[in-house]
Amino acid sequence: MSIFSDVPQAPPVAVFKLTADFREDSHPQKVNLGVGAYRTDDSQPWVLPVVKKVERLIVEDDSLNHEYLPILGLPEFRSASSKVALGDDSPAIKENRVGGVQALGGTGALRIGAEFLRRWYNGTNNTATPVYVSAPTWENHNAVFADAGFKDIRPYHYWDAAKRGLDLAGLLDDLEKAPEHSIFVLHACAHNPTGTDPTQEEWKKIAEIMKRRKLFVFFDSAYQGFASGSLEKDAWAIRFFVSEGFELFVAQSFSKNFGLYNERVGNLTVVAQDNENLTRILSQMEKIVRTTWSNPPSQGARIVSKTLNSDIIGNVKTMADRVLLMRDQLKSKLQALGTPGTWDHITQQIGMFSFTGLNPKQVEYMIKEKHVYLMASGRINMCGLTTKNIDYVAQSIHEAVTK
Ligand code: PMP
């Protein structure tokens, strides 16, 4: 009898299970629209040319070695990351009140930030502070905050299924009613899974209430560059909140915009009120990192810090443009097929994903009958579409909707 015989079997993580099912499927026309990773028009992963170039320089650089990095990470990576988020000439950076914690991907940045907030925000070890996540959201948000100890995780209104757009009234109402000091996880751009972001005017309304109601802003920025093809434009919301004087966190992921998924490269940018607060915050962050991964890996951080924004943006734009093309084509093909319903949301939504509006039964049909794999929520990864499979996918959606 094993001492572990009472360990229950945990269910698989939906998005990785979908990929495993896809791999096992031998159908020649199978398509994977599940996991959020970029694919070329030949359905292949893409190592960004600038990344490849910098990787070669790193291999050739004899001054580099494999010593431990500092606990908080590679200094030039941390400052480069904060500059990507806040802008090269951010006043907050000039005022020495911005710091970074290098983290294992965006997930690590969220987790370290959540752990810090539980320990030190709104009291000491206050697990009762409400944490609000959008409805729907990236499914890991709930679990990350729950595992960090938060006991009260709540959805805030975000998606209006009927109008296939932002439920601004519901969102603003939730902000008004949330207890003071509640934590709000906001998607900085390219909302996952809906592909729907507030406009600048809407962000201003959100910020006004959050400031007045003393709510904490925790940005999740996993797709900077993917929404518009511009790193600057996609950081607008973050920069606006900083300009409004918020103390806030930004969990940054470089998995998607640098195509560095398995290097686990992320950063928690901390915008504090002043340098003295920042110093104390970072001293506590060190303690958290020390018992979590002790110090982070170097390869991804070196790549990001050695790649100039001006170099990466061309590659990011290539990805963003291909997504835009696929959005246009999918919409026109569905319209040409006369598929019932409106499909304008496909081109109105931005970033990597589209929230198609397909219901679970239609999704099941897509997977079982058509071998087109997508999340049960109806979310599709637009990068999984190519000029070669888009007719088949459009036809499959048409059948799923009309059968
Ligand atoms: N936040 C959101 C909204 C995401 O979609 C993802 C990745 N799917 C992450 C965070 C985590 O990114 P990473 O892979 O860098 O941990």
Automatic annotation (TrEMBL):
Enzyme class name: transferase
Keywords: Amino-acid biosynthesis, Aminotransferase, Cytoplasm, Pyridoxal phosphate, Transferase
One Gene Ontology term from the biological process aspect of the record: aspartate biosynthetic process
Keyword Transferase annotated: yes
Cross-referenced InterPro entries: Aminotransferase_I/II_large, Asp_trans, NHTrfase_class1_PyrdxlP-BS, PyrdxlP-dep_Trfase, PyrdxlP-dep_Trfase_major, PyrdxlP-dep_Trfase_small
Cofactor(s) this protein cannot do without: pyridoxal 5'-phosphate
Stretches assigned to the Aminotransferase class I/classII large domain: 29-397
Catalyzed chemical reaction(s): (2S)-2-aminobutanoate + 2-oxoglutarate = 2-oxobutanoate + L-glutamate; L-aspartate + 2-oxoglutarate = oxaloacetate + L-glutamate; L-cysteine + 2-oxoglutarate = 2-oxo-3-sulfanylpropanoate + L-glutamate; 3-sulfino-L-alanine + 2-oxoglutarate = 3-sulfinopyruvate + L-glutamate
GO CC, any one term: cytosol
CDD domains: AAT_like (cd00609)
Main localisation: cytoplasm
Entry's EC annotation: 2.6.1.1
One of the record's GO molecular function terms: pyridoxal phosphate binding
Localization of this protein: Cytoplasm
Family: Belongs to the class-I pyridoxal-phosphate-dependent aminotransferase family.
Remaining remarks: In eukaryotes there are cytoplasmic, mitochondrial and chloroplastic isozymes.
Record's subunit section: Homodimer.
Identification of the protein by name: Aspartate aminotransferase
Organism expressing this protein natively: Lates calcarifer
